[in-house]
Amino acid sequence: MEINSNEECPIWFTEDCAENRYTIKHRKYRDLDRPDHVARQHQLDAQMPLKACWKYYQQLLDDQRSVIRSEDDEKAFLYGLERFPQLERVTVTPAAHGWLFTPLYETPMIRQFPHGFNYPIPRGWHYDPVDCQVAEPLPWSEATDDYKELWRGAQIVLRLL
């Protein structure tokens, strides 16, 4: 893994964070300075040093691995299902993070992110980085276990419902 010596984090992390900054400016383009744009700009101006972002990101990854190993995500979902017997809808989305400082869903975890935290936005859909087209998913019967694990949340929901 190549390290950016100035920031003490991997080059891919530095590049993803730089792309996030570019995307914020690109998405605003010539739009008016609405309150949501101003709020995002304040977060951008207050971006944590990349070294601190990397450290926080690593902790998130460690926590995620621990939850998956212990299957606490599945246990928590089952616990919730048992307590809400009238539940009629469950949404599983790979897009909760949305864009930097503009999450699609402000989950408790996302709300707890430090002000100015820049990180690689997880994407649940696969795309070709060359032409930026969404890649067709593999047929399930041909998929490897590693590929199927990318759909862990959907598998848990389908199995428990």
Brief characterization of the structure:
The chain is mainly α. The chain is built from 7 helices and 4 strands; from the N terminus they run ββαααααββαα.
Give the number of helices.
Answer: 7
Number of strands: 4
Strand residue content: under 5%
Mean pLDDT metric: 87
The Cα radius of gyration reads 18 Å
Quickly give the structural class: mainly alpha
User: How much helical structure, as a percent, in the residues?
Assistant: 40-55%
Number of domains: 1
Question: Strands of the biggest beta sheet: in what spatial order?
Answer: 1-2
The general outline is globular
Q: Spans of 5+ residues with little confidence (pLDDT < 50)? A: none
Query: Separation of termini?
Result: 41 Å
Run of helices and strands: EEHHHHHEEHH
Assembly context of the chains? single chain
What is the makeup of the main sheet?
A: 2 strands, antiparallel
Write the layout of secondary structure elements.
Layout: E1 3-4, E2 9-10, H1 11-28, H2 35-45, H3 50-70, H4 72-83, H5 108-111, E3 127-128, E4 133-134, H6 145-149, H7 152-160
Antiparallel strand pairs: 1-2, 3-4
Protein described:
The chain has 161 residues and is mainly alpha-helical. The protein has one domain (3-160). Helix content is 50%, strand content 5%. It contains seven helices and four strands. The strands form two sheets. A two-stranded antiparallel ribbon has the order 1-2. Strands 3-4 form a two-stranded antiparallel ribbon. The radius of gyration is 18 Å and the shape is globular. 7% of the residues are buried. The model has no long low-confidence stretch (mean pLDDT 87).
